[in-house]
Amino acid sequence: MSSAVDAFMEQVKTKNPGQPEFHQAVFEVVSSLMPVIEKNPKYDEYKILERIVEPERVIMFRVNWVDDKGEIQVNRGYRVQFNSAIGPYKGGLRFHRSVNLSILKFLGFEQIFKNALTTLPMGGGKGGSDFDPKGKSDNEVMKFCQSFMTELLKYIGPNTDVPAGDIGVGGREIGYLFGQYKRIRGEFTGVLTGKGRNWGGSIVRPEATGFGVIYFTEEMLKSKGESLDGKTVAISGFGNVAWGAVTKATALGANVVTISGPDGYIYDKDGIKGEKIDYMLEMRASRRDKVKDYADKFGVEFFPGKRPWVVKADVCVPCATQNELGKDDAENIIKNGAIAVCEGANMPCTPEATEIFINNKILYAPGKAANAGGVSVSGLEMTQNAMHIGWTAEEVDSKLHSIMQAIHAQCVEYGTEPDGYVNYVNGANIAGFIKVADSMIDQGVV
Ligand code: GLU
């Protein structure tokens, strides 16, 4: 079996040289799928694997804009329209200096399976730019967004491709992007999600990814007769996902003791609650990217340049970025007796770390299942826009909760091993794949 995976990966690497993150994401999915493909020859006959790793379309474009000093800046914009078998392309835009085609292809590929798991009709896509909003004025961000959208709008639409936020793209950016789309197209439609509440956004969208991760964690713990109440939780990141996760975990009785940023992590033994959670929003709005500010304000310990995985915690929730948690971190987490690791970010654990969690048979959920709450509420935003209505917070939150339970159930259905251990990686990959693959077969060779 593994020789089939190796042979397939050889082809992927030859066809997509210099894209390590994309190779990593494909390898993980294909490793889960090979047994399913071997049992179901139709997938091989229809060349589903070969087709699913090939984006339907990749758009790359120049983004020129003029900064506050009057200097011309040149960035690169992208949209990877990966798979539209089950719905319009759907996925965020990432603005970060690290953005390149490999990262966006990995994210777009993950999004195919994640979106399939949500139970909603959304295909997979991702986009962004190497533009770095850090240190830019509002005016500069607006100029960039307007230029970016002027090109992107040729390729998107409410029934074609619906972008949203990701790292570096929040409410401010979505506002500028939406304004430019509306101005040029002359259309007020749900072409983007994560919009402001006054102009078509869904309530609970800002919290959705973090809430969803914690709902998923609760489901995993429930399967072991446990709950988050009274548990110590370590979280990384301090942005949108981490904020939602801290809020919900604390509400469910957990003691969240860490958050982190590019500068290091903070350890707050009394728990991040009340005004401290609100301060996370202030930190994000300041755009300083420094969690040391939290330590200074609340007089807790700060560990410069370090990651929080040395801290003793029952549950670890990495919410920062890809490959932030490696082999040594995973060994520490196991040594410290953690019972669950639930990914809030996209692919935050390296393959070596993932292997350690699974070999030690602790509860471990991959991002494509656990962080699907964000895109799920984006899907609910699309529905509300299409119906020209707005649901209440209770309605959206309860739909989100049911979706996360449904994702968990799919992972259990497809990922339970003979000894009863649930391999959530296999479960998520297989459940997401079958829905997309069968739809591709139904729609013929397109
Ligand atoms: N960027 C988020 C994700 O990784 C949300 C995407 C969306 O809402 O379309 O799933």
Structure keywords:
Rossmann fold; 7-stranded mixed β-sheet; 446 residues; binds glutamic acid; alpha/beta; 12 strands; single chain
Task: Outline the structure in words.
With 446 residues, this protein is of the alpha/beta class. Among the domains are: 132 residues, Leucine Dehydrogenase, chain A, domain 1 (Rossmann fold, 3-Layer(aba) Sandwich), CATH 3.40.50; 156 residues, Rossmann fold (3-Layer(aba) Sandwich), CATH 3.40.50.720. It is 49% helix and 16% strand. The strands form 2 sheets. A 7-stranded mixed sheet has the order 9-8-7-6-10-11-12, sandwiched between helices. The chain has a 5-stranded mixed sheet with strand order 1-2-4-3-5. The protein is globular. The chain starts with a helix and ends with a helix. It binds glutamic acid.
SSE layout and pairing:
Layout: H1 2-15, H2 20-39, H3 41-45, H4 48-52, E1 57-66, E2 72-83, E3 89-95, H5 101-117, E4 123-129, H6 138-152, E5 161-164, H7 171-185, H8 205-222, E6 232-236, H9 240-251, E7 255-261, E8 264-267, H10 275-286, H11 292-298, E9 301-304, E10 315-318, H12 327-335, E11 340-342, H13 351-359, E12 363-365, H14 367-370, H15 373-387, H16 393-415, H17 424-442
Parallel strand pairs: 3-4, 3-5, 6-7, 6-10, 10-11, 11-12
Antiparallel strand pairs: 1-2, 2-4, 7-8, 8-9
Helix pairs in contact: 1-2, 2-5, 2-17, 5-17, 6-7, 8-9, 8-15, 8-16, 9-10, 12-13, 15-16, 16-17
The structure holds glutamic acid (GLU).
Glutamic acid binds next to strand 3 and helix 15.
The set of bound ligands, ions and cofactors reads: glutamic acid
Largest sheet: 7 strands, mixed
| Secondary structure tally, helices | 17
CATH homologous superfamily classification of the domain at 206-361? NAD(P)-binding Rossmann-like Domain
How many runs of DSSP E, i.e. beta strands? 12
Give the class from helix and strand content and strand pairing. alpha/beta
Mean pLDDT: 97
User: What is the CATH-assigned architecture of the domain at 206-361?
Assistant: 3-Layer(aba) Sandwich
